Fold Oligopeptide/dipeptide ABC transporter ATP-binding protein.
Amino acid sequence: GDVLMEVEDLRKWFPVASGGFLRRKHEHVQAVDGVSLQVRRGETLGLVGETGCGKSTLARCMIRLHDATSGRVTFEGQDITAMSRRELRPLRREIQMIFQDPYGSLNPRRRIGSIIGDPFAIHGVSSGTERKRKVQELMELVGLNPEHYNRFPAEFSGGQRQRIGVARALAMRPKLIICDEPVSALDVSIQAQIINLLADLQKEFNLTYVFIAHDLSVVRHVSDRVAVMYLGKVAEIADVDDLHERPRHPYTNALLSAVPVADPDVSDQRERIILRGDVPSPLNPPSGCRFHPRCPKAADQCVVEEPLLISRSGDAATHLAACHLPVQPGENLAEARPTLA
Ligand code: SF4
Ligand code: MG
């Protein structure tokens, strides 16, 4: 499809002060640091990475819940990073967000009919019985009983509360919905129901999703393309099957090797790759390739030179990886050792 949203060299740095009163230092958490990617109309783009990799911050910049430090986000060709609050208002209908914790985002003292009707109130779209009718239609659409209009959030299960979140996101008939770990807090049995609901709604309303998860196995089932993030940058981005069958970035390989494969016949049966150490602080990210302190393939070049996110010969043009020494087919990273001087 054509490009619905484009992110260009986006940075979001959060200032932090440290060092006490006399030796005050002003540093920055480089939560998102130079991300470029496109979201195509009608697709689901999976966004994957460990806690703190910047995926939620990136999502919040996409909907202007955060103002970017630098770079651009355009939606249907309009630069939303440069818009005033007033200019943004019509876009607030077209881009919606679903959050991980549906309970935390619902006011426990309000009835769900009124919660789902919020967007109508905010945008002054309808009122009274007309609004109630629209809210009840939305409830039906997401598999809630419209007669439960007057109930409170606590009267619903976790899965039902996520359906309330979905209904509220749908109210303004958005084009893009950013789903920030929408099933991570739910029981596995309920996860599939919500994922199926999102898939049905996508077809029915031609929705585009950015689907954030820390788990590649969830993302595989819902995404057309996947971007893997590490320490504020995109490590690899590709069509979902390319990414699983021919991962090029050692970090992607490590993530995939941790995904249990139920079917012993499938091709991506991998030896588990154990990464050294923890994710370094985004306050002071490593030089060169940010993954180098943990990478099983790290070489001297990786310490000094930042790899570009590019496509390699033999790969699809849509398959980009930021690595000086991309993984070759059949290469066993579980046995690789860094060659640092
Ligand atoms: Fe590993 Fe070097 Fe590739 Fe970074 S650039 S992922 S350190 S091989
Ligand atoms: Mg998060």
Summary: The longest helix spans residues 188-205.
